[in-house]
């Protein structure tokens, strides 16, 4: 019996040593992290609203990480191609994903995804919430939001509404708008926000709903007509625009939140460093000033894995119901 106990003890000791040998390089890597640039994947085209947030955040995070944060645009399929890239990336902390609300809507919009939204990612934290604006071509006949709502309801079948593609923020806002007012329009999907905005500026389409990070400059330059914002309260950078809620569409609220993820299996130590850098970036005065100018709300009190995980679960359920009701799917 004594020999048996000794054998068991030796076996346990050997297993512990083996486990320590496996963990030691991982812990050492985490302690030294980062030793090279970190790539932030943005699953949309350069110059779009999410890209604007990412580039400002990357610079702010660089200061605390001590390494460059390189923004790489991997667009296509409503953000799912770039998202899949991160799901399959090494979980060493050198590839992260900056994605918006589309992270929660993709499971309902796409019949087949090459990643598992619920299991392939490690949340790091929320970053910003961006209100949407309801804008139209510069020569649209309505002078204010009251006239706009009256006009679009009376001419629903004749008007065109642009969006940046299925699953984009502008597409989701448009779905919510059509559902709320009980009308349908000709929806024109584009391969990104830039071409959609170009056609709106060229008066090729009638109106669209898009993030303040993409529309504020055009609104202030008078190149488009702006009617309302989708947030619960007015946006400080666009104080003259009423909310849709105060304009008669009660409880209409669409905010395009953005979050930061790492691949599943990223060590807790590296996630903690990323989260600390994210927090420092959101608190950076230059970043906060830039986001304020663009109408974005910095979520520095929600820059945690738990806050992002909780929001993703609730938003997946909420938008899943909206998308199912609208009967919109992508292959």
TrEMBL record:
<keyword id="KW-0675">Receptor</keyword>
<feature type="signal peptide">
    <location>
        <begin position="1"/>
        <end position="30"/>
    </location>
</feature>
<dbReference type="InterPro" id="IPR042100">
    <property type="entry name" value="Bug_dom1"/>
</dbReference>
<dbReference type="Pfam" id="PF03401">
    <property type="entry name" value="TctC"/>
</dbReference>
<comment type="similarity">
    <text>Belongs to the UPF0065 (bug) family.</text>
</comment>
<dbReference type="InterPro" id="IPR005064">
    <property type="entry name" value="BUG"/>
</dbReference>
<keyword id="KW-0732">Signal</keyword>
<protein>
    <submittedName>
        <fullName>Tripartite-type tricarboxylate transporter receptor subunit TctC</fullName>
    </submittedName>
</protein>
């Amino acid at each position: 019996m004594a020999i048996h106990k000794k054998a068991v003890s030796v076996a346990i000791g050997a297993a512990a040593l083996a486990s320590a040998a496996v963990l030691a390089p991982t812990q050492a890597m985490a302690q030294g992290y980062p030793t090279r640039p970190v790539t932030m994947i943005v699953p949309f085209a350069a110059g779009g609203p999410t890209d604007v947030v990412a580039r400002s955040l990357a610079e702010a995070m660089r200061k605390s990480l001590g390494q460059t944060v390189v923004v790489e645009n991997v667009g296509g399929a409503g953000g799912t191609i770039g998202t899949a890239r991160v799901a399959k990336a090494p979980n060493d902390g050198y590839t992260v994903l900056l994605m918006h609300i589309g992270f929660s809507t993709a499971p309902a919009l796409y019949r087949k995804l090459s990643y598992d939204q619920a299991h392939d990612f490690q949340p790091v934290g929320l970053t910003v919430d961006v209100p949407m604006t309801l804008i139209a071509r510069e020569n649209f006949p309505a002078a204010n939001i009251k006239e706009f709502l009256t006009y679009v309801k009376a001419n629903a079948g004749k008007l065109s509404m642009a969006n940046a593609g299925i699953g984009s923020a502008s597409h989701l806002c448009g779905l919510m708008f059509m559902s709320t007012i009980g009308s349908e329009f000709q929806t024109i999907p584009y391969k990104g926000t830039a071409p959609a905005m170009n056609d709106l500026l060229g008066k090729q389409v009638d109106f669209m709903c898009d993030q303040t990070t993409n529309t504020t400059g055009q609104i202030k330059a008078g190149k488009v007509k702006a009617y309302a914002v989708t947030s619960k309260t007015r946006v400080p950078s666009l104080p003259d625009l009423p909310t849709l809620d105060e304009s008669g569409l009660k409880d209409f609220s669409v905010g395009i939140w953005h979050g930061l993820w790492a691949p599943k299996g990223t060590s807790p130590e590296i996630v903690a460093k990323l989260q600390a850098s994210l927090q420092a970036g959101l608190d950076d005065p230059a970043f906060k000033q830039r986001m304020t100018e663009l109408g974005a709300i910095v979520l520095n009190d929600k820059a945690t894995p738990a806050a992002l995980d909780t929001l993703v679960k609730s938003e997946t359920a909420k938008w899943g119901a909206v998308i199912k009701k609208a009967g919109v799917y992508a292959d």
